[in-house]
Q: What sequence folds into this?
């Protein structure tokens, strides 16, 4: 158990910066033609993820609701209605205790999740690069002095970010390449073309059948993963094939599969962890210092 005092021990300036990050990124996206939709907290379908977490579901009458692990499927459906959407989406992932000390994991966190109908991966990379510059400039203008007192490395990111191919990095540096490259880097960089076995079924498979048209953004100075996203599969047969490869149960995702059968548009998008971004800007040891009421893996707190 973590006591309430601990849950409230977050610097006031950090909260102000986090609030500004959310405000400015929302403003940037609205200017770029996006609308903000409300988050979905419970649904019969949610992201199966590529790693296992404890179940977070609720029996309800003759059905079952899951707490949202990510809004991926709702995003793919939402772009049927409006082509560019974003939401500040609370995600629940009941991670195992070993993730407590990574510095990057909370069992409840918020991602700025966005999706664009008809977009390609490159469109999303450029959008995010421009958004980062805008947000960093804004927080610098408003909180530059306090940020620099916490973070001697703070700077406006230089775009375009470097694009590193997953398998090339793996070959050169071995299985720990992400940590090695993140520690060595002084600017955020993209990790692209992630192998099929490392990801969920919904990111689009490239023609070679081995890597996906997707990406992670990695922060420098050892802060690690910031964003994940990609182009999406949208054709029924391909989605079934990918689900079968992963062993995803069709019945669990029936609501989604029925809609895919009717037709969902091609799209691309990504999700940006707000606590991780705040942590990076403010140079915090752990994401738990980036929000109030943080919930660490393996603990219970308010
Ligand atoms: N939000 C991510 C995406 O858009 C998915 C995730 O969080 N697992 O690809």
A:
């Amino acid at each position: 158990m973590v006591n309430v005092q601990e849950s409230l021990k977050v610097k006031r300036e950090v909260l102000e910066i986090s609030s500004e990050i959310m405000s400015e990124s929302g403003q940037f996206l609205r200017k770029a033609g996006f609308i903000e939709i409300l988050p979905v907290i419970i649904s019969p379908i949610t992201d199966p993820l590529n790693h296992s977490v404890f179940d977070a579901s609720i029996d309800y009458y003759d059905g079952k609701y899951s707490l949202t692990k990510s809004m991926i499927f709702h995003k793919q459906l939402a772009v049927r209605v409006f082509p560019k959407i974003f939401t500040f989406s609370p995600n629940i992932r009941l991670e195992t205790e070993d993730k407590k000390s990574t510095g990057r994991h909370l069992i409840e966190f918020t991602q700025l999740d966005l999706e664009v109908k008809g977009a390609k991966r490159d469109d999303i990379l450029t959008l995010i690069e421009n958004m980062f510059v805008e947000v960093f400039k804004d927080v610098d203008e408003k909180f530059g002095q306090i940020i620099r007192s916490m973070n001697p490395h703070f700077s406006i990111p230089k775009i375009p970010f470097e694009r590193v191919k997953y398998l090339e990095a793996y070959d050169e540096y071995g299985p720990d390449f992400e940590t090695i490259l993140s520690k060595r880097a002084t600017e955020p960089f993209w990790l692209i073309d992630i192998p099929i076995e490392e990801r969920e079924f919904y990111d689009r498979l490239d023609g070679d059948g081995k890597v996906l048209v997707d990406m992670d953004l990695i922060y420098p100075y050892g802060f690690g993963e910031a964003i994940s996203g990609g182009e999406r599969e949208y054709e029924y047969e391909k989605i079934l094939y990918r689900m079968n490869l992963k062993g995803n149960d069709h019945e669990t995702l029936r609501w989604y599969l029925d809609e895919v059968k009717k037709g969902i548009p091609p799209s691309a998008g990504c999700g940006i962890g707000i606590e991780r971004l705040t942590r990076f800007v403010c140079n915090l040891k752990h994401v738990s210092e980036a929000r109030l009421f943080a919930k660490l893996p393996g603990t219970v707190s308010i």
Q: What stands out?
A: The pocket of asparagine is lined by residues 47, 70, 72, 111, 113, 228-230, 269-271 (CB under 6 Å).
